[in-house]
Amino acid sequence: MFKTMNDLRFKSAVGPAITTLLLTGCMVGPKYHPPSPSANATAPPPPVVYKESPTQFQETDGWKVAQPQDAMLHGKWWEVYNDPELNALEDKLNIDNQNIRQFFENFMTARTLVAEAHSQLLPTVGTTLSYQASQSSSNLTNSPNANTGKVSSIGSLPFDVSWAPDLWGRVRNTIHEQQYNAQLSAADLENERLTEQASLAAFFFEIRGQDALQQLLNETVENDKKALELTRAQYETGIGDRLSVVEAEATLQTVQSQAINLGVARAQFEHAIAVLVGANPSQFSIPVKPLLTDAPAIPLGMPSTLLERRPDIAAAERRLAAANAQIGIAYAAYYPSLTLSASYGYESSNFSHFFNLGSKFWSVGPSLSETVYDGGLRRATVNQFITTYNADVATYRQTVLTAFQQVEDSLAAVRLLSQQILKQQQAVASSEEALKLEIARYETGVDPYLNVVTLQTTLLNNQQTLANLHVLEMTSSVTLIEALGGGWDLSQLPTPAQVSKKLDKAETTIQK
Q1: Same-domain check for residues 345 and 443
Q2: pLDDT score, position 247
Q3: Is the confidence at residue 354, as pLDDT, over 70?
Q4: pLDDT at 507
Q5: Is residue 57 in a domain?
């Protein structure tokens, strides 16, 4: 009785433990901890403000940042430019851009891999219905008692179940790896979306700049035509000379040539925008609208939050998590694998007796396998994934450094360009006044027309430089927004549970 009670106690204690082990097992391999963004453990934390922020300099003229300084862009970041046409194009891009669509489908593929990994936790059930009829040869023996020439048949309907419990976490680490890869794919999607959005905005402001330059050259052509008419009239009345007429003609023709050349760049930018928004360039156009404005105030946020705002940094960090899970998968190969299998079904040579009690058969049993010697394969595999992880750490830290570099570069560009624009505006004003004075001197016969031509050229060059600086300032502000991560932040990255959800029918429909 005492032995029986002990047996019952042992079974009641060990049974649930074995069941728990079979169902959950343990996880081998290193636990993941996000690495420090800096390789130097004693490196100081990020500063309160960016080094190249205008708030760090004494001069107050030029571009300003939005206040408060810790504010951030959210959502449709391009709306900071207050341009309805740009807003409409960006909305169309988010729907019809084929590069974004490709990255979206890559994300859907990554989610299906999560489902595939999940399936390894469950048993596999299969069946094979078979029927075979045969007749033996009548020439196999001469014995009169031989059972020759008889037709025989056999039918079988087995149900086979096989399950390999995840004792050491190989399957769970595989699931985690695929979940992290799906998150990585989601971050890549957002990074591609931001790149396409920024490219569209930059091309849009390039077109606006080309339209402004075209307007400037058109006005210059009209002024040069009037100047040519004046020099011809003076030559025909004997006041002027032929040289002045030729100089005026050359000046007009040069500007006309420049005006024609502007159409090349504008057409190319327009075609590029058409492709970005998923339109045929042959059926797409953007109305001419000269517009040169100063870059708007852009909220920078705190440098310490940059890591949470850049999708490429999020992708690099998720790649690290996936690489860490790979190490756990490699470690699981050191441990034995258990497989539980069972079979149940019906088998009979007479179909009428197929489902009788006597036709039943079954089998059940576990199998345990372990690699005794592999020539160092498992150790080499673990080392491979460790070195891959270390390389990904370096990639992550380099991505962080590059992100700060891009922000500082763009801040310096926008700040200095805004100050250069102020000086260039003064240069244009001075050139206009000098040309006005020189024209008066020419008309009174004090100076030759060559002096007028020289100052006309100087004025046009200064005006073109000013227009180009406005374009550079606007495109640099777009680059700054892109470097800051646009309107994205880490809270928008889907969780492992979200990427594990089953795809709906619309997401798995073949595109026409």
Answers
A1: no
A2: 87
A3: no
A4: 79
A5: yes
Split into its structural domains, the chain has a count of 2
* 353 and 470 both lie in a single domain: no
* Same domain membership, residue 227 and residue 272: yes
Domain boundary among 351, 369, 387: 369
Asked whether residue 408 falls in the same domain as residue 360, the answer is no
Radius of gyration of the chain measured on its C-alpha atoms: 39
Q: In the structure encoding, which two tokens stand for residue 12, read together?
A: 């009641």
How far is residue 95's CA from residue 89's CA, in Å, rounded to a whole number?
10
Confidence class of residue 293 from pLDDT cuts 50, 70 and 90? confident
Average pLDDT over residues 260-275: 93
Range of the domain at 306: 26-35+43-121+167-335+377-508
Give the orientation angle of helix 449-483 with respect to helix 170-236, to 10 degrees. 170
Nearest to 76 by CA among 100, 96, 94: 94
What is the C-alpha separation between 2 and 8, in angstroms, rounded? 10
Rounded Cα distance, 155 and 159, in Å: 14
Residue 60 has a pLDDT of 66
CATH number of the domain within which 132 lies: 2.20.200.10
Strands (E), 195-351: 337-348
pTM, rounded to two decimals: 0.86
Say if CB 481 and CB 198 are below 8 A apart. yes
Q: What is the rounded average pLDDT of the residues 439-449?
A: 86
Amino acid at 48: V
What CATH number has the domain bearing residue 252? 1.20.1600.10
417 and 503 inside one domain: yes
Give the pairing of strands 130-135 and 124-127. unpaired
Residue 8 within any structural domain of the chain: no
Mean pLDDT score of the chain, rounded to an integer?
87
**Two tokens, residue 446:** 């004090």
What mean pLDDT comes out for the span 394-403? Answer: 94
- Residue 83 in this model has a pLDDT that exceeds 50: yes
> Could you tell me if residue 392 is inside a domain?
yes
Look at residues 253, 208, 249, 198 and name the one whose alpha carbon lies nearest to residue 228.
249
Please tell me which residue, 134 or 81, carries the higher pLDDT value: 81
Q: What gap in Å lies between CA 482 and CA 195, rounded to an integer? A: 7
- The verdict on residue 19 lying in a domain is no
Q: Look at residues 325, 343, 382 and name the one whose alpha carbon lies nearest to residue 117.
A: 325
Q: Which residues contact 344 (CB under 8 A, 6 or more apart)?
A: 158, 159, 360, 361, 362
Picking from 185, 198, 1, the residue whose alpha carbon sits closest to that of residue 86 is: 198
